[in-house]
Recover the amino acids of this structure.
């Protein structure tokens, strides 16, 4: 999803100049890329909703996505019936309480196979919407995306999570 988002932004902002796009985008995080996409969308009056839908969906899953990628995982009994894996957030958070602050570290969350599938479905949906937007931009706005990515040239890869935790590629309907 994030690579697809970078591909879209690179095509919009750098018009196929892959090396230049990479130099400017390599240090960006998901939240920065979403802000950039919102700003670039302003160039497409009447079609901003196409961009906003992608940004809104990505922001909706951003916290869980960050936990998945940056958290510390413990497999637990994941893959077994009613099993789950635990992921712990390594960031320290502070919350104002009365005259002081409460510091918390290492909040954890449990995820089942079904939870993984739900998040994977959301990521697949976002990647699919990015691919469709890239195709629309190529057709209606004469934007050529170059070789920075493959989203608009091919289909996004989508997966399903099996009950044992393994992945199976899913053909698009």
């Amino acid at each position: 999803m994030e690579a697809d988002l970078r591909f879209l932004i690179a095509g919009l902002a750098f018009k196929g100049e892959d090396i230049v796009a990479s130099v400017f985008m390599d240090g960006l995080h998901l939240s920065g890329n979403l802000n950039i996409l919102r700003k670039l969308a302003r160039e497409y009056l009447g079609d901003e909703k196409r961009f906003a839908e992608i940004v809104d969906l990505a922001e909706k899953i951003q916290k869980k996505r960050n936990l998945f990628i940056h958290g510390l995982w413990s497999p637990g009994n994941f893959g077994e019936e009613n099993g789950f894996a635990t992921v712990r957030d390594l960031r320290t958070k502070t919350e104002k309480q009365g005259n002081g602050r409460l510091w918390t570290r290492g909040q954890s969350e449990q995820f089942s196979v079904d939870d993984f599938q739900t998040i994977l479905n959301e990521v697949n949906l976002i990647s699919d919407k990015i691919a469709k937007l890239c195709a629309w931009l190529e057709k209606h706005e004469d934007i050529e995306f170059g070789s920075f990515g493959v989203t608009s040239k091919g289909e996004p890869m989508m997966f399903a999570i099996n009950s044992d935790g393994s992945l199976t590629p899913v053909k698009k309907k």
